Every structure is written in structure tokens, then in C-alpha cells.
């Protein structure tokens, strides 16, 4: 069973959080509320999130400051942040949002369909990365088992290699389809994230191919980390 992705919604006004939940409920993911920057940072200490929707105008720690804290933490710095704001102070204000690490900057009132589509892209990329990490973990296990088998003079277990190859092929196919969808219509940040995912998949495939019977016995490729 595939675990649902978590989406962090940060806004000091309950009615805005309720509206975001109504818009994003169709994605069938786990929506987590935070009513302040401090509360958002606390949630990020323990949970992994696919994307963060962050209100700019909040009392105390505003969205810019919250984003700065998020980007300083190694655990959370790669989480996409979409800034939401009810006011527009012009290009300088928008630039400050991107400088703080946002992948997008949306002014209220926003089109619910557009927001849902943007969030869904990052959710899908997050799920593909989770699958890739799972394949990498299994591959590292196989590398360890292969080394032990060679040391004991026993036959290398090829069954798990075949299973890993089949699972990886499914992820590769899904990633290729997603990249085609992103080619002409997605944000630059989403395209860059998809390209990074493809590079990690390529490295994992090379490492897996090195384990196949009859492969070059030279130094195998190192499976991707993270």
C-alpha cells in the first residue's frame, strides 16, 4: 500500500486553512495544518512533506522568515515552498519570495484549479523520489548480500536482482511519463526536480546492471544516496 504524501498548509487564519483543505482534498493526500511559522517548523522536525503552502503575511514570524529557517535546515531545505499572499507590493516583494527559496509565488485570490495542479506535480515528484529511495535501499542490501555470498563461495542470489530490476523499470516508466507531461507546461523548478530524479534513476540502473550475472567484475557503480 502506497503511503500518502503530506502537504503542509501554513496560515494564521483558520478560514484560509479551511479553503486550502477544500481545494486540495481532491488530491487524496494527508493535509497538515499549521497556524504560525513556529508551528510549521515544529511539524517539520518529525514529518516529511512533499510541498509547503506558506502564507506570507503572518503575525510574529512571517512567511519569509519561516522559509529562511526551513532552507537552513538540512532535513527540510529541499522541500518545495509555494508562497501565498493576499497583497502585491510589486516585483521587489515577489523577488524577495523567490530569494527566500520559494518555487512559486501566488497572489490571492488564486484559481483553485491552478493551485491544485501545481501542488499535484510536486506530490507526484515526491512519490517518485520515495520509490527511488526504496529501490536504492534494496540495492544496497543486495550489494551487502552479494559480498557475503562471494566470501562464502555460495551462488549469488539472482532472484532479488530480478525483482529489483522489475521494480526499477516500473519507476523509470512512470518518471519518463511524468517528464513528458512537464516538458512544455510546468514550472522550471518542477522540470529541474524531474531531471534530478531521472539522473538518480540512471545511477541506480547502472549499479543494478553491475550486479547482473556476467557483468564486468570491475568496481560497481555506487547506488544513489537519499
Automatic annotation (TrEMBL):
Q: Which InterPro entries match?
A: Bact_response_regulator, CheY-like_superfamily, Sig_transdc_resp-reg_receiver
Q: Does the keyword Metal-binding apply?
A: no
Q: Name the SMART domains on file.
A: REC (SM00448)
UniProt-recorded name of the protein: Response regulator
Q: Which intervals of the chain form a coiled coil?
A: 161-188
Kindly list the positions at which 4-aspartylphosphate occurs in this protein.
Answer: 55
Q: Where are the transmembrane segments?
A: none
Extract the Pfam families matched here.
Response_reg
From which domain of life does this come? Bacteria
Segments forming domain Response regulatory: 6-123
Please give the organism: Streptomyces humicola
Recite the UniProt keywords alphabetically: Coiled coil, Phosphoprotein
Amino acid at each position: 500500500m502506497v503511503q500518502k504524501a503530506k502537504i503542509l498548509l501554513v496560515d494564521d487564519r483558520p478560514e484560509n486553512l479551511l479553503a486550502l483543505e477544500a481545494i486540495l482534498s481532491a488530491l487524496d493526500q494527508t493535509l497538515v495544518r499549521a497556524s504560525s511559522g513556529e508551528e510549521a517548523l515544529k511539524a517539520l522536525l518529525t514529518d516529511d512533506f512533499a510541498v509547503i503552502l506558506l502564507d506570507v503575511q503572518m503575525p510574529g514570524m512571517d512567511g519569509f522568515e519561516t522559509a529562511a529557517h526551513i532552507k537552513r535546515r538540512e532535513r527540510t531545505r529541499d522541500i518545495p515552498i509555494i508562497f501565498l499572499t493576499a497583497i502585491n507590493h510589486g516585483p521587489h516583494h515577489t523577488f524577495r519570495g523567490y530569494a527566500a527559496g520559494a518555487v512559486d509565488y501566488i497572489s490571492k485570490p488564486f484559481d483553485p484549479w491552478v493551485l491544485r495542479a501545481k501542488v499535484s506535480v510536486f506530490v507526484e515528484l515526491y512519490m517518485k523520489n520515495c520509490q527511488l529511495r526504496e529501490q536504492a535501499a534494496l540495492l544496497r542490501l543486495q550489494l551487502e548480500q552479494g559480498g557475503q555470498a562471494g566470501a562464502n563461495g555460495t551462488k549469488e542470489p539472482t532472484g532479488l536482482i530480478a525483482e529489483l530490476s522489475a521494480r526499477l523499470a516500473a519507476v523509470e516508466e512512470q518518471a519518463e511519463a511524468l517528464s513528458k507531461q512537464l516538458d512544455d507546461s510546468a514550472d522550471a523548478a518542477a522540470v529541474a526536480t524531474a531531471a534530478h530524479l531521472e539522473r538518480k534513476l540512471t545511477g541506480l540502473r547502472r549499479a543494478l546492471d553491475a550486479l547482473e550475472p556476467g557483468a564486468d567484475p570491475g568496481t560497481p557503480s555506487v547506488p544513489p544516496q537519499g
